[in-house]
Design a protein that fits this description.
Keywords: ATP-binding, Nucleotide-binding. The structure is a single chain. It contains 11 helices and 5 strands; from the N terminus they run αααααβαβααβαβαβα. By secondary structure, the protein is of the alpha/beta class. It folds into 2 domains: 60 residues, no CATH class; 165 residues, 3-Layer(aba) Sandwich (Rossmann fold), CATH 3.40.50. Strand 3, helix 9 and strand 4 form a beta-alpha-beta unit. Helix 7 crosses helix 9 and helix 9 runs parallel beside helix 10. It binds adenosine-5'-triphosphate and magnesium ion.
């Protein structure tokens, strides 16, 4: 029997586990195995399973349950802005070529600690696409940290104030993919440029950074201090996939088509 979920099938007739076994499983912290055990044991008895199979199915339940819990936690700590995934992404409506979309969604570039810079006009799907890839990375058991330049700056500035900058940068760089969304929407002062530099420098050739911006990275020095911008972009682009989006804003198209809101009742 192959079970695919960590939720045991409702088997009201399956007898509860003996108290001592239940206690042992709690003590060993095997919650998913414990939840599945009554049902698995009842099925195993009825179908005369090999004992090794019983053990395998039970341990598998625990592994599946733990993996799913880890992914749930990672999704939460990633701090995603909208929850948009590839499921709602329409590849043919994007100006990013199908081949590029496909290649990026293999996530192999994250394994190689390469970066991704998506630039283009407002509403052309930059944030949606990167968030979809980032969700996909979590499903592939990777870790993601999502920031805007403002939230990154606030995080690093707070750390600076209590002397924990190095620790904070190290913690952020535990993620396999660090996203800095919507760079260049607002002018970035010394603090923002410094925060961005610290992360790009710490992640350089070790972790992947994905940025989205209305401005091509070569123009980042137009809205942040030049020296820091140059050093940051130099590192960011050394091993980077540079993608530009084109076209009209999806937001505007949807608004004009009357799809931006639900009709009032
Ligand atoms: N190819 C697509 N498939 C599905 N939805 C899309 C696509 N492209 C854009 N959208 C939708 O259009 C809206 C705008 O997209 P998004 O926020 O990703 O734009 P952006 O390029 O990041 O814009 P900005 O520069 O203003 O931040 C979102 O609601 C997004 O879900
Ligand atoms: Mg955006």
């Amino acid at each position: 029997m192959t079970r695919t979920t960590n939720t045991p099938a409702p088997a009201r007739s399956a007898p509860a586990l003996p108290d001592d076994l239940d206690r042992l499983l709690r003590r060993m912290r095997l919650p998913y195995l414990r939840a599945a055990a009554p049902d698995v044991i009842a099925t195993a008895k009825a179908q005369r399973w090999d004992p090794a199979e019983v053990l395998r199915v039970l341990i598998n339940e625990e592994v599946i349950g733990r993996d799913a819990a880890t992914r749930r936690l990672r999704r939460k700590t990633a701090n995603f802005p909208t929850g948009k995934t590839l499921a709602t992404w329409r590849p043919d409506e994007s100006s990013i070529s199908a081949a590029t979309q496909q290649a990026l969604s293999t996530l192999e570039w994250i394994g190689r600690a390469e970066n991704l810079a998506v630039s283009g006009p407002s509403g052309t799907g930059k944030s949606h696409f990167v968030e979809a890839l980032a969700h996909h990375a979590i499903e592939a058991d990777l870790r993601v940290a999502w920031f805007t330049l403002e939230t990154l700056t606030a995080t690093i500035s707070r750390a600076k104030a209590d002397g924990s900058t190095a620790r904070t940068v190290t913690r952020i760089c535990r993620a396999d993919l660090i996203v800095v969304d919507d760079i260049g929407m607002l002018p970035a002062g010394q603090d923002a440029a410094e925060a961005f530099y610290r992360i790009v420098d710490a992640a350089y050739e070790r972790r992947s950074i994905a940025v989205t911006s209305n401005i091509h990275p070569s123009g980042f020095d137009t809205f942040m201090p030049k020296t820091l911008a140059t050093a940051t972009v130099d590192r960011l682009l050394h091993h980077a996939h540079l993608i530009t989006t084109q076209g009209d804003s999806h937001r505007l198209q949807q608004a004009l088509a009357g799809k931006g809101v639900k009709a009032l009742t």
